[in-house]
Amino acid sequence: MAKKLSLDPLAGYHAIELLQRCAAEAQSMNYEDTVFNNLKDKFPLIIFSCVQLASKMSLHSEIIDNNTAVRFLHSVGHSVTKQTLLESELMVLKGLDFRLNVSNPLTYVEILLEVLGHNEPSTPVEQLYDLCHHILRFVSLEKTAIYDSLLVTSTKCLHPSVKQREKFVTVTEDRMLLAVGVVAVASYIHHVNKWEQVSIVGGLNLITGISRRSIIDFAHVTLMHIVTAALTDIQVCFPFTLVGAEFEG
């Protein structure tokens, strides 16, 4: 949706973060069935409201005004009024308690690549940045499956307990871990040799303080899901083919 509206990718990921927070807030409340069903019916509009709000927070995108919003929604089969748009936006704002400044994983990725390039000028920053966009999009789409696999890997238990799952919530909310994992996967896919790969993982460890083991585990799990998606003919929008040995640190 953000791409269709010619928004900066940062705005798109900002919208995802807003939507996830909004959904988490809705799940935490004990809505009656009628209220919950009403929210489900409004979900496409809620998604758009998150995108519209993200555009207003972006420094690199034009704000989506209500005229543009009405035209876009009409083009995809949703006829709404400006008043309905305003009500939806207000509902999302209230659901977020008017807090729109959220952690953006793409921002973390950009910062990490910039620091890596500064520390080691030979780092292929531009190529890694392009790959990171594709990988981050994949992780966003497959978030539940990837983090479930990461939970199993970290606990070494096929059926983690409720307590283990509760503790793991902080991991799913760690945007820096997500970013270092994405950059590590990009470094592997770029076919840099093993020593460069180790250097990048080590650099990420020094920059963030996140252990090499955690970075490698996240990268390994993500790579396995990418390979599985490719082998099962799930549409994966990557401009590359995975070859080579297993990811190592």
Task: Please report which band the strand proportion falls in: under 5%, 5-15%, 15-25%, 25-35%, 35-45% or over 45%.
Answer: under 5%
What is the C-alpha radius of gyration, as a whole number of Å? 20 Å
Q: What does the average pLDDT come to? A: 82
Q: Tell me the distance between the termini.
A: 37 Å
How would you sum up the major sheet? none
Instruction: Write down the domain tally.
Output: 2
Structural class assignment:
mainly alpha
Runs in which pLDDT lies below 50 for 5 or more consecutive residues are: 242-249
Task: Tell me about this structure.
This is Cyclin N-terminal domain containing 1. InterPro entries: Cyclin-like_sf (IPR036915), Cyclin_N (IPR006671). Pfam families: Cyclin_N. Residues 2-101 form the Cyclin N-terminal domain. One of its GO terms (biological process) is reciprocal meiotic recombination. Helices cover 70% and strands 0% of the residues. It has twelve helices and no strands. Helix 1 packs across helix 3, helix 6 (105-119) packs across helix 11 (194-208) and helix 10 (175-189) runs antiparallel to helix 11. It has 249 residues and is mainly α. The protein is globular. The relative contact order is 0.10. The protein folds into two domains: 9-95, no CATH class; 105-231, no CATH class. The two termini are 37 Å apart.
List keywords for this structure.
single chain; 249 residues; mainly alpha; 2 domains; 70% helix; disordered C terminus
